[in-house]
Structure to design on (119 residues):
């Protein structure tokens, strides 16, 4: 009887660790979310001009959602990947986009960004 209670307690403790620890282990923001949030920015990133309001809304939304280091690194990796796949991106515009939207992300949006250093 005592050993079965110990087994139940151990299993319960392991379940709690898995449930509480799993959000910390993986980024919850997908590249699809990053892409859809920042799709309104493509024209600006290619040609400059005025930053569209939906672009800044997407930038602010992503910044608010990226609460953990894995989230921020995941968003960084998605931005890095996207910046290399979208043709005609002006990386000067990309690097300045967060500040134009009133957001501080702590790194430059560029294919050369080392996302492992993002905290």
């Amino acid at each position: 009887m005592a050993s079965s209670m110990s087994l139940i307690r151990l299993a319960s403790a392991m379940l709690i660790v898995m449930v509480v620890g799993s959000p910390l282990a993986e980024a919850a923001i997908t590249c699809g979310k990053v892409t859809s949030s920042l799709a309104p920015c493509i024209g600006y990133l290619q040609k400059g001009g005025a930053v569209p309001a939906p672009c800044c809304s997407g930038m602010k939304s992503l910044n608010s959602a990226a609460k953990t280091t894995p989230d921020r690194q995941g968003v960084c990796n998605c931005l890095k990947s996207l910046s290399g796949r979208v043709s005609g991106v002006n990386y000067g515009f990309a690097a300045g986009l967060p500040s134009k939207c009133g957001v501080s992300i702590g790194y430059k949006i560029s294919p050369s960004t080392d996302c492992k250093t993002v905290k």
Remarks:
- The helical segments are 2-25, 31-38, 42-47, 53-65, 69-85, 91-100.
- Residues 3-25 have pLDDT under 50 and may be disordered.
